[in-house]
Amino acid sequence: MKKIGVYTSGGDAPGMNAAIRAVVRMGVSKKIEVYGIYQGYSGMIEGKISLLQPRDVANIIQRGGTVLKTGRSAEFMKAEFRKKAADNLKALGIEGLVCIGGDGSFKGAHALWEEHKIPVVGIPGTIDNDIYGSDNTIGFDTAVNTALDAIDKIRDTAASHDRLFIVEVMGRNSGHIASYVGLAGGAEEIFTPDANTTVEKAVDRIKDSMQRGKTSSIIIAAEGQKPGRAYDLAEAIRKKSGLDAKVCILGHLQRGGSPTAIDRVLASRMGAAAVEALVKGQSDIMIGTEGPQLVTMSLEQVVKTEKKTSMDLINLATALSI
Ligand code: F6P
Question: Using H for helix, E for strand and C for coil, what is the string for 60-86?
């Protein structure tokens, strides 16, 4: 293998730059030319591709976002545009790809392999940590710590005013951030798309805790939780109980910032392993983690399986919030 490409796709995640750096430098150390593909699949279709040298990825390991830019390409869902992208890669002699992204990005990568036999290795990069086949994704640890820092601050004001707060964290389809920050932030209730927390149960527990002397509470709600967005949840709580809940939506700030050491290490290991996998002739796989080990799983398996939110974490958070 003499030429490979690397791209980031979907929502950006802190640590993507560390992964790009690792791919470029591991590639160069194996005498491979590494091409950066800009703006994910859109750039692949439009031919926004250029050679990267080790110095091009200097001083990025500590930066959030992605120097390659990213996006969600609707065009790439159509076979004709995937063909255009594959033709661009073949014209440059690119013989393998490293895709850094989430579920949607891996579906595209898998299609490139199936339809055009371009070898591809995925690295899970998303703050959501919702990728089956890996305990952790790049960006999750940073996002959790960013959200936690905000929740700690909200707790100060909630306690000072004896208030109930709803803090909305990211996770359109997943509750991993919510369950982690809920437990780590000492939340009273956690709402996620898949948890069975209901407004009725939450209200009963909060009222009960007030009778036992608790004066302030924090509810963590993932974006995709069942009563809707955080303001809908606040309204449902008000209707049910008369309790006035203040709302704080953390939003995209969870996607930015300097990656934690955990994310930088994870990204560096996965980036290097992805290049090694391509060199060994592997394709259509994702590099993941299982405990401290790096493992691989077929992209097909990854994209068709859901990684469930840990109800153990949510139940523990509730049990400890008495
Ligand atoms: O990257 C994942 C994610 O951050 C989700 O948690 C969130 O729902 C979504 O992306 C938001 O995407 P966008 O920035 O495209 O609105």
Answer: CCCCCCCCCCCCCCCHHHCHHHHHHHH
Structure tokens at 161: 């005013």
Ligand 1 pocket test target in 73, 128, 146, 253 with most atoms within 8 Å of CB? 128
Tens digits of pLDDT across the chain (322 residues): 999 999 999 999 999 999 999 999 999 999 999 999 999 999 999 999 999 999 999 999 999 999 999 999 999 999 999 999 999 999 999 999 999 999 999 999 999 999 999 999 999 999 999 999 999 999 999 999 999 999 999 999 999 999 999 999 999 999 999 999 999 999 999 999 999 899 999 999 999 999 999 999 999 999 998 888 999 999 999 999 999 999 999 999 999 999 999 999 999 999 999 999 999 999 999 999 999 999 999 999 999 999 999 999 999 999 999 9
Q: Which candidate in 12, 87, 103, 128 is catalytic?
A: 128
Q: To 10 degrees, the CA torsion angle through 200, 203, 209, 212? A: -90
CATH level 2 (architecture), domain 141-255: 3-Layer(aba) Sandwich (3.40)
Extents of the domains making up the chain: 3-139+259-304, 141-255
> Using CA positions, which residue lies closest to atom 14 of ligand 1?
11
Give domain 3-139+259-304's CATH architecture: 3-Layer(aba) Sandwich (3.40)
CA separation for the pair 244, 203 (Å, rounded): 11
Q: Has this prediction a pTM greater than 0.85?
A: yes
Q: Is the CB of 177 under 6 A from ligand 1?
A: no
